[in-house]
Amino acid sequence: MVAINNYPLYLILTPLSVAFFLFMFKSYLKKVIGVLSFLTLLFNSGIALYVFKLIQNKPIMVKLANFLPPIGINLYVTGFNSLLVLIASIVGVFVSLYSLYYIKEGDKSRYYILLLLFFVGINGILLTGDIFNFFVFFEILTISAFALVGIGNKKLSIEAGFKYLIQGSLGSLFILVGIGLIYSQVGTLNFADISIKIKEIDISMKYLIGIFFIVGLGIESALFPLNFWLPDAHSMAPSSISAILSGLAINAGLYGLLIISYIIFPDVRILFNIIFLLGIITMLMGEFLAFRQDNYKRMLAFSSTGQMGLVVISLFSGSITLFIAGLFQLFNHIFAKVLLFLSGGYILKNEKDYNSCRLNGAFYRYPIASTGIIVGALSLLGIPLTLGFYSKINIILGFSSINKVWIIILILLASLFEGFYFVRIIKRLFIRENLEKNFKIPFLINIIFILLILFLIVGGIYPYVGNISKYSKEFLDSTKILSEVLNG
Amino acid sequence: MADKIILILLLAPFAGLFLGWINRYIRNIYYTLLSIGALIFLFYVKGNYNFEFNFLNFKFYFVFDSISFFFLLIIWGISLAIFLFSLPQLKEKSDNIYYFLISFLFSITSFLTLSRDIISFFFLWELMSIITFLITVMNKNSKDAAIKYFSFSLAGAYSMLIGIILLYNKIGVVDFTSIANSISNLSRGSSILIFSLIIINFFIKGAVIPFYVWLPDLHGKAECKFSVFLSSVLLKFSILGIVLLYFYIFKQDIFYAVKITAGYLASITFLVMSFIAVFQKSAKRLLAYSSIANISYAITAILLGGVAGFYGGMFHILNHTIFKGLLFIVVAGVVFRTGTDNLDELGGLIKRMPISFVAMLIAIIAATGVPPMNGFVSKWMIYSSLFNNHAYLAMIFLFISSTVSFLYVYRLIHGIFLGQIQEKHLKIKEVPIFMLIPIIVLTLLTMFLGYFPGYGLNIVKDIALKLNIGVLDYTTHTVTIANSRVDTFFIGALFMSLFIISFIIFIILSKSRRVSQYDNYNAGQVLTPEQKYHYTENFYKPFERTVIYWKIFDFNNLYAKLSEWIEYIFDWLRKIYSGSLQWYITVILLFMIVLFYILF
What we know:
A: mainly alpha; 3 strands; B: mainly alpha; 23 helices; 70% helix
């Protein structure tokens, strides 16, 4: 059974309407535009929390204009996507608060409007119940991301944004072709309806659709031969944007890939295997290449692809325990990478150089930010007492239980190189060089770091699984759940 | 009850963190009292306790037994020594986080001795490595060494993880006792594979060839107090691992060739390391190589020496903790007073630091395995066990290594205490009282266990009985191995009386005249005060020229080459991200074509 109410709709409408409002009155609101977007995202996370609370009983469906699903547009909220929305909103709050101090020059109004649109895109992708709106929100997300990457107005960041634009558009094009193919075959765009009708179509058609979606969404979710945009975009964007690109944008792509795979071709093993294989290559390539980077943000960018590879192989392995472990790894990656980008980015921006040697001695100048870097790095590495240990050991035990020891060896090989480069960064923090403080880190930013550190450590000591396994089971049976949309 | 103790152990270091904000002396006194409390508690609770609890949704199996007792004794004894030793140093700028991490490390290592299931063992093992890394990376000198250590340690931990995952995959239980019960179901191939994968980790921690390269750097460059921990405690965890793996889990039932290979790797290690130690300039680095050698004696004895080998090896571990801890503490005291551990820059401190000198003299007598000190008994046991188990080659290596160890310990004591004193060291005083306490206690322990090894062997016997290894014929002051019997008290008394007699003769008959150290001549040429008659540089040059071939065992170059190759390959891979948009689009389209090709 599904409950019908309109609360989830505000998750999309609030940032969207505020963005328009800010755009119209931006000349009057120059001083408060940052605070307003922060408050919007704070409000949004409040709604997300409320929706997440409502969802504990049964899924929520939002029907627009009172048309029932196969015809009307709907949002469909389960435990799984409302959890992701909640996490995205929390990250949004952190990032917008951080931006208040971080974005000092350039056109602030443009930055905040795009930031709000970015969150419209994220929430839309996660909540939508039909595939065309998925595409629309995906476009909102990616286009605002292209613009945000280039917002620094420097030559390199514009170039990076342009490259991202071309490759992202290519991806969107493929997604659109895929959607067109689906529509030509089943004559509907609603996920629930598709999931029922898709069973009758030809397997080779599924292959074709699968290829278009794997390539299209693979570009956004940073799978290996498709992730060329990522290092440039992550390293050239402002750190707050790198954080949400790495923490949220590629995860939105992954969510798309996940939902399409489980709805369109849940029974086609070969497509799953292709994604799985891509995940392994992505993981290894990401960690190997990050090993050779001196630029802090570029290193983190490659590390993101490596982590995404690990998440992809655990989400697409087809085992429920691995799926849950993969989700934890995803959460771990979101929080740890956001923490790394925000803390390291703040120091390095003020040093005006993103080479990691500028971090030398940072521990003695900015202990909290540096602790953030250490905890984030250790959590990504999967060191005990951080959330990363819990997720990684469960991934490894999960692969052991499905007798794929060779994958464990590859995961550990990747982790080994990950360890090497993170350890180098940690070493830099303790080198006693340039010990005079050039700037101060504001109190509120330190609070952000502390909250993220606490999340990673408390998660490592007391990982609250709660209903996540239930949500994951629901998601893996999405066909069954989705049929409720049509009935109720 | 046991749960509460665990909680106290875990939370106790954090209290120190808060105390440190109030006053650093209160903090260190607190940590000292904590160690004393732990030691008292340890003797109070002796016995067997099992406790299981849930953590991270896993079941952790912790057991307090004789194995834990042995290692906990080492940990908290050394902890007490280190914190006592640290008290006079606090006048300098000291770090709250540093002491917190050290104390936390003591808690973590204590848990590790209790841990009896694969998940918690891996958890604590990795935690131990990372905290050690953090402590050493914070130090000024040991940053690169810390990275080297952590890289090896991570590789080792992952090798062990693959091993235990295979074990878990084959057997399906996590606690060691259940695994041990069904270990015989493993096929020979997988048992060899698992054993090798796991023992690689312990060999890395125990610095066996070819994995030793991290240790001399780390022990040599870490902060002095922490070197004591590294050598006396951390290194012993390789033994804990081997005991748990070989005796507890595999019940000595492992393919003969694997055992022999592992044992002989360790014996080659001590042979080579003793030679390398001779040529060191830094006192701590010298002791580091000596530590590797000593740990390898124990590993060889445990793997190749049978029952007596187990007793001898474990007893040697206990002795090594004591005498090597003592040596490191004495060196730390010298560094505290003089600011250097470079043997070329020291010398002649005997009259300035007489107690330290006597302590070091006794410790090096123990280290070389000469009666009447504790090192003699354990080394004798290792010799006899290797001989009785037909590991003659290992015994010959041990013999050579022991002989060479005379050279390096003489270099150590000569470099620091004998010869002529440097001008700048004339005003040096003996170390403060709090540093003397651990020195004196450890010196007395070294002598006591040399006279009455039975008290040390009692602790080892408990482990041997627990693991069904067998019994050894010994009393408080005699040890009997296969018809050969040694009475340490008799030997000790003999040595002592000879020493006293010769000392009396020396006093009565000597016609020595006290002269200033500058009152000397050299073949008619008068030396000015700047030129000293005390030479330390290139002390063993002729010897070095003779045995130059040890350099082939310097694996540093090999690892440097390896990392160069890896970097070269990765740099090559990096070229895929060329920065050219046309190339990127081409690859995306090519990838799509490949997908079409695969699927249609």
